[in-house]
Amino acid sequence: MSRPLILAAAVAGLLAAGPAFAAPLTVPFDFSRGEVELQVAVKGKPLHMLIDTGVAPSMISLAQAKALGLKVDPEAGEADGIGDGKGASMFGSAIERLSLGGRRFGRVEALALDTGPLSAQYGRPLDGVLGWSFLRDKAVLIDYPNRRLSLIDRPSQAKALTRSCRRRWSAPMALLKDQNWPMVPDFHLGGARLPATLDTGASGGVTLYQGALDLPGVRDALTRTGEGQSTGARGASRLTEYVFSGPVGFGRFDLPGGSAVSLRQTKGSAETSLANIGNRFFADLKLKLLLDYRHRRIGVFADCA
User: Fold this and answer.
1) Percent of the chain having pLDDT more than 70?
2) What is the mean pLDDT of residues 70-99?
3) Rounded distance, CA 75 to CA 18, Å?
4) CATH 2.40.70.10 occupies which residues in the chain?
């Protein structure tokens, strides 16, 4: 599943409340479909939800919201995001009595919509997405090699969870303007540097936008391999698949030449983003990825025992 959803509608007062907890909360996640899928509960009912850095605020299945008795605004808006069709209808709502790993969290602002098309692409029912309204006041460590996610309260807890890692690097967390979407620091394709969004809601690796082809050396380093598609809030969209002959990476971490790269029809912009980087990229690098929204830092850890 690639880019499940970007909800552009403004929801006033994003107040995702999370408790101040002393110990890290570590839970397993299902990565069988290339997504960070968590088993959560809402009002005691088990649900499947994704952690998605590219969704604002968060999302819940309209059917589940109604079944759980969650408040749903009767006025519909239109979802914005990936796809070539009409945006899905969405309704203001909130996830109440959310719990993860036995720990209760406060009210999470959300939008409710029909998740049927996304579930079909995903391969099983998808009940929701925890995005900006959940993440905004938290620090999240995604351990790709061991398929574990930790919510931490203090930087010292991250050190304890990454003590065995021989390589480490950190950078300020920049957010895409007006979307609160983290950017990948110092992302590079061969010798070209370009702005790229960090997308834990995308199962793929590197997806380029058309504007990236104009960067020095990029077009000549691509060898076409086929066609693909992804599904988002506006239905299916086409991708062209390539192999990139040079190294691909960020900061001190690189994949060698020969990495798969997708190209989307979106133009993109050098002032905003020319690429979207999904889970496969971070998993291939075997990283532990720290997204510290509280202190606006990104930490990267590799070669961990």
Assistant:
1) 88
2) 82
3) 28
4) 25-152, 158-304
